[in-house]
Amino acid sequence: MSYPTLEPGGSLLIAWQLRGRRVLLVGGGEVAAGRLVLLKNADAHVTVLCAPEGLGKEMKYRIEVEQVVDKYIPEPYSREEQLTCGENGEMYDMILTAIDDPEASREICAWSRARHIPVNVADVPPECDFYFGSVIRRGPLQVMVSTGGKGPRLARQIRQRLENAIPSYTGDAIERVGSLRSALRKIAPRPEQSAARMSWMTDVCETWTIDQLAELDDESIPLVLEGWHDRTVPAYSQVMQSKRNWHWPRMQNVASFLLGVTSTAAIIVALAHRTHR
Amino acid sequence: MSYPTLEPGGSLLIAWQLRGRRVLLVGGGEVAAGRLVLLKNADAHVTVLCAPEGLGKEMKYRIEVEQVVDKYIPEPYSREEQLTCGENGEMYDMILTAIDDPEASREICAWSRARHIPVNVADVPPECDFYFGSVIRRGPLQVMVSTGGKGPRLARQIRQRLENAIPSYTGDAIERVGSLRSALRKIAPRPEQSAARMSWMTDVCETWTIDQLAELDDESIPLVLEGWHDRTVPAYSQVMQSKRNWHWPRMQNVASFLLGVTSTAAIIVALAHRTHR
């Protein structure tokens, strides 16, 4: 059997969706500021709970200058009521703490877990439903390096190596492939075509290299889509050739027009000259 | 200000902890089998809900030959009661579906969300609390490549590039750094030493390269720890030199012992020879 061998002892790496979800961040120091960046990059609605004297430089900047914190409550954590939001005591969708108070952390953690609210307590791994890793971001591309808490600093070092291995145009390539997929969905919209669409998109992504995919544009996408009808993938060179050919008639039109303008002008000038004489 | 620039539009990449948690996996095809591998690699307790005729080759192998599925319920999904576990209708900690039935998928999703149970519905992104990415595993190291659903196939291509950028000894390096940290915690156990411990560990990880860290062993770890007392990091070459020097006296002892044995034997033989004569 050639199925992948199981390798227990890891975590389940996932991309949590936070767009518009309400997150409570308890704390205002350096670690909390780092968490805030991760949350805002995931489009969360963030409430920060922290006494004013606990705010670090970055958190102050994010709250006062950038104003990216959706709600700032200038109090230290002291009671459970602070863990709900709104007037009706609604639940947050996620709670993160980054404070130097193990007892309060443990209390917040137990409270959240009892309510099935995903919770992370910075620097207290056993209290966490999930850990953070070291992250690379290139537009729609996100890469996380996790050592399951065994080597957070080493994770950062490995992340740097990986950053060098991701070409700068990778984000573009992903955007362009997204556009190609949308365009394909327009010409093949039926749900029963879904498997064929996915299989053809795979073929495209495996035939073209990442740097070639990054060159896809409004002109070349229709040319690639021509392959969809007989389920083939046009070669990159072929598409670029057709793109040039497609430009050529337009270039000829422009040249003809300019020739017309020039000769007309010449005739008018000549006539004017003659009339003048 | 030099704080990182926010880049909205992404997801929150996290390492979810599933050790001993109960997960319901609805479906038995190729996608479900892939999910099972991710779940078992994270030490989850997995229940598979799928009619026998819906089981694919890999899932059959995992259930019957490998026996890594903790509980197999040979029924198709048809009613909400199947979404709870145990005799008292306890909640699962996570629910994943990978079935070709959009209506059932949507129902399972709505049911789970109403109960704050993290849920993923394969191929139906809007129904998901979280997405999966393409994953690299090297012992305790896990790397996830996510395109936020924009290019799952491209993610696989990028993952392959990254795989080549991670040296094979990286898993070893993480394990060894973990051993160094445990040894450090033994000689500096107090909680108030935590910040100093973390800072010194960072220095070690940034002074030694990954391949050098992978060479740490029971002999060299105490030598590196000697630097802790004055908060310095011994150079790799210095530690390897000391390790050789540490071997040398032992080698000398062994040599002296052998010399002793040989000469004693020679004397005895000589005496015996003389007596015999």
Automatic annotation (TrEMBL), chains A, B:
<dbReference type="Pfam" id="PF14824">
    <property type="entry name" value="Sirohm_synth_M"/>
</dbReference>
<dbReference type="GO" id="GO:0043115">
    <property type="term" value="F:precorrin-2 dehydrogenase activity"/>
</dbReference>
<protein>
    <recommendedName>
        <fullName>precorrin-2 dehydrogenase</fullName>
        <ecNumber>1.3.1.76</ecNumber>
    </recommendedName>
</protein>
<feature type="transmembrane region" description="Helical">
    <location>
        <begin position="254"/>
        <end position="272"/>
    </location>
</feature>
<comment type="pathway">
    <text>Porphyrin-containing compound metabolism; siroheme biosynthesis; sirohydrochlorin from precorrin-2: step 1/1.</text>
</comment>
<dbReference type="GO" id="GO:0019354">
    <property type="term" value="P:siroheme biosynthetic process"/>
</dbReference>
<keyword id="KW-0812">Transmembrane</keyword>
<keyword id="KW-0627">Porphyrin biosynthesis</keyword>
<feature type="domain" description="Siroheme biosynthesis protein Met8 C-terminal">
    <location>
        <begin position="167"/>
        <end position="234"/>
    </location>
</feature>
<keyword id="KW-1133">Transmembrane helix</keyword>
<dbReference type="Pfam" id="PF14823">
    <property type="entry name" value="Sirohm_synth_C"/>
</dbReference>
<keyword id="KW-0560">Oxidoreductase</keyword>
<dbReference type="InterPro" id="IPR028161">
    <property type="entry name" value="Met8-like"/>
</dbReference>
<dbReference type="InterPro" id="IPR028281">
    <property type="entry name" value="Sirohaem_synthase_central"/>
</dbReference>
<keyword id="KW-0472">Membrane</keyword>
<feature type="domain" description="Siroheme synthase central">
    <location>
        <begin position="138"/>
        <end position="164"/>
    </location>
</feature>
<dbReference type="InterPro" id="IPR028162">
    <property type="entry name" value="Met8_C"/>
</dbReference>
<dbReference type="GO" id="GO:0004325">
    <property type="term" value="F:ferrochelatase activity"/>
</dbReference>
<dbReference type="Pfam" id="PF13241">
    <property type="entry name" value="NAD_binding_7"/>
</dbReference>
<keyword id="KW-0520">NAD</keyword>
<dbReference type="InterPro" id="IPR036291">
    <property type="entry name" value="NAD(P)-bd_dom_sf"/>
</dbReference>
<dbReference type="InterPro" id="IPR006367">
    <property type="entry name" value="Sirohaem_synthase_N"/>
</dbReference>
